[in-house]
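To close the section, here is one more complete example, presented without commentary so you can practise reading it yourself. The ligand is magnesium ion.
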Amino acid sequence: MPVDPTSYRPDPRYLDLGVEGFADPVAPADFPERVLRFRNQRWAERVGLGALSPGEWLEHFARFAPLPHNLPEPLALRYHGHQFQAYNPQIGDGRGFLYAQLREPAVGGGPGRLLDLGTKGSGRTPHSRDGDGRLTLKGAVREILATEMLEALGVPTSKTFSVIETGEKLQRHDEPSPTRSAVLVRLSWSHIRFGTFQRHAFEKRTDRIGALVEHCLATYYPEVDVGDDAPLALFRALRPRMAELGARWMAAGFVHGVLNTDNMCVTGESFDYGPWRFLPRFDPTFTAAYFDQGGLYAYGRQIQTLGWNLARLAEALHPASPSAPWQETLEAFQGEAERALARAFLGRFGLEEADPETNASTTGAIFGFLTARRELPFQQLFHDWYGGELSAARAAESPYAALYEGRDYQAFRDALAKHTPKASVAATLASLPFQRARPVDVLIGEVEELWSRIDEVDDWSPLEWKVEDIRRLGAALRQPSGHTWPSSHVVDS
Ligand code: AMP
Ligand code: MG
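Output:
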């Protein structure tokens, strides 16, 4: 089998936990059809699977024949979680499983991150309850778009690795039905969730919490000095990553939509995309999910929600370390998130950070301007103003030039002028996505149009062009000192 022996590095570490208690071996569904719709060749090459033939790809990512030296059978992972703040002990991998684990090429001499290939829509499991274990093709297309755009904007996210249409007709409340089916494979930096810890706390299995903590520290935080309190060390290492994640969602204008604790990953990577949206315009109350009528997971509440979720994780870890200063440790999150927010927004303008006070006041000026100019499409602001000193010329050419006037605008400009443009800005501005009047964006209207082309005439080319366009934006922004995840947690390919 043509895996690349130098870059395919199987490492099924989940087995170290002992499957008992942590997962259930399952069989994939036997689908009536298998038609490849999306193959993430960039990431396939990176993990040594780029040379698979089309037939082999289907064999592995629709039939789930084991990969060499990897998990012998799929594992539906066990977890619980708070869903819209209510604890649900009946969930778990109900339509997905862990299929394989492999290492990314090493960055800076380390072993390389351990990545999971996990599924969505691969069939029923012991956790399916009344669900059919399936994913709609539209859901898969939406996940492609969310992951590609987030990756381009430098948000640490799972990657959509493969989408295969499976020829079933599904009934759904939130899509015209019957609707087409698919199986999606995602490449992500762990599938261990806050809800995984919560499940073992619920079952009063402190031994399993301890084992899981050790596993996560060794596997996902090898750089951390554990000291004498492993649960606390894990929490302290994860907390700034969650702050960074929330800040980057905000700066990307992204609304995840379902910030339940079973959708929070122990590495701080964003994953599991259902009713997500990108902001059309700046609006803290903007809500993605139609079923989130109270606006619990609205754009402007996401950081606060990550803090709430961290508190639930601390509760789950508490039995494994009852005397640790959990409250104090949690309180540090807010300050971390504010600093991360300044960094993330400055990054989107291509600007260097200054001292903390200046950074904080710049964030204030940015939010002030965004609030005063709510008519402005959210992505347009960064598109027009990318690069500090260069911005005046670009703003004059913008279709929204008239909005860049007046006192709020002046305060905003003055604030940005206190920061040095990153060295890479000129190269970015010269790149193709920045030569247009309109930014690359992934708003709901376009998502629906892309889906209609697929659904009505099976035309996949607009989606393919869109992905190419998003990737060009990502390449343009990924100049040296651009939007990279710090140190070893690089998300770029
Ligand atoms: P999600 O909203 O996708 O994060 O899913 C929440 C929970 O519901 C998870 O335990 C899923 O496995 C489960 N679930 C969602 N959709 C289905 C389905 N169609 N069949 C079985 N389980 C599902
Ligand atoms: Mg989920």
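Once you have examined the tokens, check your reading against these statements. Confidence is low (pLDDT under 50) at residues 480-493. Residues 230-252 form the longest helix (23 residues).
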